[in-house]
Queue: 2 jobs
Job 1
Amino acid sequence: MAIKKQSSDPAGAARAALWLIYGEDEFRVKTAARQRVDELCPPADQAFGLEIVNGSVANADEAGAALKRCLGALRTRGFLGGRKVVWLQDANFFADSQTLKGNVLKEHRDAFARELKKGLGADVALVISAFKVDGRSAFAKACKDLGELTPFERPEKSYQQEGPARAWATECFQRASLRAGGEVLEAFLDRAGYDTRQIAQEVGKLAIYLGDRKELRLDDIRLLVAPAHEAESWDLPDAVGRRQLAEALAICRQLLLQDPKSCVGLIIGLEARCRELTLHRDALDRGWLRLVERGEWKNAEWRSAPDVDAAFSVLDKDPRKTHPYRTAQLAQQARNFTRAELQRGLEAVVVAHETILAGASAPETLLELLLLKLLRPVKP
């Protein structure tokens, strides 16, 4: 999330002096920096109005040289006295790393910050795109005082990447004038993954394929978007919870190809999911839990009452402490099954687990048979 939002108003852009666009999401950093540069200096004027300084360096001396070139460009007047835009591009030395650290580099950065504080001039603008930036440094503080900071950080854990990836995919679809419903969007993210560059490229492919049609369908996703990542162990329980037999079988086979010895672990995961869905199905039936529509999404809300507190107090983990988004997912999956189906499914999983441990059947075949039992079509 940006500390200060970028202005899409060119007149507003002209009044600012400096933009620092940084973060580990390299694709979005480069895209946003290019967009800002084009707003400040239209492509037709860039031959004379734009100067680019390469900030990708290998050591402290090269970093110092790049900063000196940047300062020199800022002090040089634009062609025929016009506006001058300087772009310090792909800078990799504003946060210490194993290859770029030490007192010499810090001195170069501090000296650069002092020069920035003196001002850039009325007809000069500076755009800096960087990988990482130490927010405590004098350079970062100077940039914050002079202009706008726009970070594009990439969360370390996969479950934290899902929300930003969904927002980025939605933005990409809107820019391409494509409409993707909630189910289609989830299927797209399941296949494309959470990398922003990959998401943008896959949306571009879909836009070319659809032509004048703007409504995306699940068949379009399955046809054009190739899986961009290895299957994870939790993908299988999620496919089972969505009651998608073909998807569950495909994920199962992929997981077994990745790790042929993972059968027991996968069955343990299915057993845990059956227990979770049974609990949430029961809570829905009793009125302890409900799903509330919030636009295209559903939120989960627990009822507060003594009987609810008493029921959950005996459990090792209170399900009400689970993140609301995850609770909503489990509740929606639980609605795909009856309580009787979940009970029979749990019994089938336990039997399959015991059979695999006894070595009485081929684990791969037994796992596929289990999926067929769990997800066989419901009779009318």
Note: Residues 263-286 form the longest helix (24 residues).
Job 2
Amino acid sequence: MGETIFLIYGLAIVSLIITMGSQLYIKSSYSKYSGVKTKKGLTGAETARMILDKNGLKSVKVEAVDGYLSDHYDPKVKKVRLSKSNYEGTGIANVSVAAHECGHAIQDEEDYSFMRLRASLVPVVNLSSRAGYIAILLGCVLSLIGLVWIGIMCEVVILLFQLVTLPVEIDASRRALNKIKEYDILDKRELSGGKTMLTAAALTYVASVASTIIEIFRLILIYGRKDKD
């Protein structure tokens, strides 16, 4: 029993290290490469507009939004939304993030299968994310182990969503790098910084998958043991 408790706490620490480590890596990479101005001098907004126009997506709008690294592509309204620092910035990180979001717009235009699958899972995941820990908490308080297991299954649904998201993000970064090369947005010396930034972004999703797997395993260890008591 002592070994199981040690493992449970150990897994929680590992999960925390993975999450914090991935966030630190992307923030440090972003801080470093947003300060390195590109020779071409394009802003993130200009980069996005160029990539979209050259790929027949002139109807997709590019707009600035508040928030730190709040960049995203909204397939419902066909808009690439860039945080103000990336919208206006001319650093390697700024144009790399903008190119990544355009990668999602191109996926949408091409009806990329994993993107469609992810979109179909969103309503279920939204419900699961709200219900999961509520079910676990109520199950613990009311000593209803069955309710706890429902909560754990909700976590499994979230893991499925993350697993589907992973290839979507990796593919968007791949497309972004290809477009950056094709349109000479970054020169050869700047490309390594762009690759680092795009890799750092992808690793945050890998870290999310790893952390969720660890958390599910940890919950099973905790409540599986209680179920046997």
Note: The chain has seven helices and three strands.
